[in-house]
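[job 0412] stage=complex_fold ligand=pyridoxal-5'-phosphate status=START
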Amino acid sequence: MLNIYDLLRNHEKLISESIPLIASENITSLLVRACLLSDFGHRYAIGEVGERVYSGCQYIDQVERLAIELSKKLFKADYVNVRAISGTVANLAIYTALSHPGGKIAAVPVEFGGHTSHFDTAEVRGLKTIKLPFSPENFNVNTDEAEKLIRKERPEIVMLGASVILFPHPVKELSEVCNDVGATLVYDASHVLGLIAGKKFQDPLKEGAKIVTASTHKTFPGPQRAVIIGRELGELIKRIDRAVMPGVVSNHHLHSLAAYVVACMEMIEFGESYARQIVRNSKALAERLYELDFKVVGENIGFTETHQVVFEGSAKDQLLLERAGIFVNVWPSTSLVRVGVQEVTRRGMREEEMRHIADLMYMCLKGNDVREEVRELAMEFDKIHYSFSVDKAYLRDFDFKI
Ligand SMILES: Cc1ncc(COP(=O)(O)O)c(C=O)c1O
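[job 0412] stage=complex_fold status=DONE, emitting structure tokens
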């Protein structure tokens, strides 16, 4: 029987010899990972900072204060909740705080890249879900039609942000109609949080969103958890805090909270150059794919302003690329392949490598065996960049046994 640690090591080897282009993932620095091994992961910190139910929380309190303080600085927010343990949990908490069973939420349809938590999770909360009108031509919410729909349906929540997102969403444009009908405009920044922190994407709070929810492990290179931020929320603050904890969280995963603090420090220091390179890379990849005759979405509008590139393709293409060591995914129920460059950018790749990856994808889908060339490129970029120490990106030498 394979040892559990062999399986982990095999996985590290697989990823380190591959080009991971899954748009919803990233890698963390060793400094971030070190926090995940700490004793914090064995503890609870129930209650408020400084007023915990269990003894022994004085250092945990300091970490939670730091997490809040650094998030406020990074996202220019005056309200921050760092206790949701995933993006879906953050969204569920927001639905609980802002809506009533039987009420309505309007969000980007899943078939155009919306996230299941804007539909399935909202339905679990008892909300009726409405699809925001979407224009495939410019891969964005159709602002005029959305405004009409919001006026007619009067949802309690309008959710912008999505899992497939190439361009800024019309936050400013829809904030007025949301105010008119009493809807709260929420922006799910799970995918673009690192770009927002690095000032390379729309700032939803500045443009009129009331609340931003986000997971912290996609373009934001932190541990798997979430953050909720807002400005001038007044009375809402108590409702959101209570909805998160004790509402949907009782243990807020303190090792990963500490890891999030380190990721915030990295983003304060390196976030702008990281985000800038991510967008340069996604554009370079899109342009080269387009030259190679891939049907890339957004050809007339610059292809992308995020970490993502989308092109027409099939499950068979995904499988062929996977066999070559290039990991992508077809967006469910569509013929669109979504790729993200945030992880390879963190490995230090730049525009030249993006063009090389596009060429490898082309060769692979034309039936050539490019596995060895993919392995060589991957192994050449095996260090983490935009962090305080230069570490191996993956733990191939993981030396544990039972
Ligand atoms: C837009 C969006 N919101 C929420 C989530 C859910 O986040 P988590 O996986 O942390 O629950 C995702 C995950 O991919 C997402 O893309």
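Residues 7 and 13 are 10 Å apart (CA to CA).
[job 0412] exit 0
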